[in-house]
Design a protein that fits this description.
The protein is of the alpha+beta class and 233 residues long. 16% of the residues lie in helices and 39% in strands. Its cofactor is Cu(2+).
């Protein structure tokens, strides 16, 4: 296991001037383990490099830019020239989250995520990749057994669990289409789940307008922000 890993994350930031850029730079300068690799105001494109000392998830970095700098921000890519994926987790018990994976080395993956709604007084939650991507049925009964273990205990603060770690024995190409599952370890009952879908690496997503809705990147972000304020992911 390589404990000195670095990975890059790409954001689109709604910057229009050098003053906007300075606000974002100020926010990032106060975060441990994060350096700016590339920042172009006109392209509204920001790439940061995270090292092992960074203690903020990618979702939290985006949220801090938006809340502290007041600038809308969209996560566009994770990792360089390697396979990446994302899973949006939800369940009937108000557990919601986003987990991102990136292949760092052969059979070693970075896992980065935030999950809300974890009440440690009510359950002992774990996070794992399961065999199947079938989310049908009561209590996600068709996801199968654990395929790749990730976190045996999701520790939470104010019902939020935030994490970044490396896992071994994980070939991400074999995980696409399977499920990411939060389970109660007391009875192995799935509480929430999401399909693991292929995602873009750094530089792999140039979309500015959604081909389905015709909405701009920022219109989509504004709509999603309203939902996140109601259920904070």
């Amino acid at each position: 296991m390589n404990n000195n890993f670095k990975t890059k994350v790409e954001f689109n930031v709604e910057t229009n001037c050098d003053s906007c850029k300075a606000k974002v730079e100020k926010v990032l300068s106060n975060l441990t383990g994060i350096t700016i690799d590339y920042f172009d105001v006109k392209q509204q494109r920001l790439i940061v490099e995270l090292n092992e000392s960074s203690n903020h998830s990618i979702e939290e970095i985006r949220d801090l830019i938006e809340s502290k700098a007041g600038i809308r921000t969209v996560i566009k890519g994770l990792g360089e020239n390697k396979l990446s994926s994302v899973s949006e987790i939800q369940g009937p018990n108000n557990i919601l989250g986003v987990v991102r994976l990136s292949q760092l080395f052969d059979n070693i993956c970075l896992v980065d995520g935030v999950i809300d709604g974890i009440n440690e007084n009510e359950c002992k939650a774990a996070l794992n990749i399961h065999e199947y991507g079938d989310l049908s049925g009561d209590n996600f009964k068709n996801v199968g057994s654990v395929y790749v273990p990730i976190l045996p205990h999701l520790k939470s603060v104010s019902q939020r669990s935030s994490f970044r770690l490396q896992i071994s024995n994980c070939d991400l190409s074999c995980c696409i289409g399977r499920s990411m599952v939060v389970s109660d370890t007391r009875n192995n009952r799935p509480l929430a789940a999401g399909i693991i879908a292929r995602a873009s690496p750094v530089g792999g997503n140039t979309k500015k307008i959604c081909v389905c809705s015709g909405k701009t990147l920022w219109e989509e972000r504004q709509e999603k922000s309203k939902v996140e304020k109601q259920s904070p992911i």
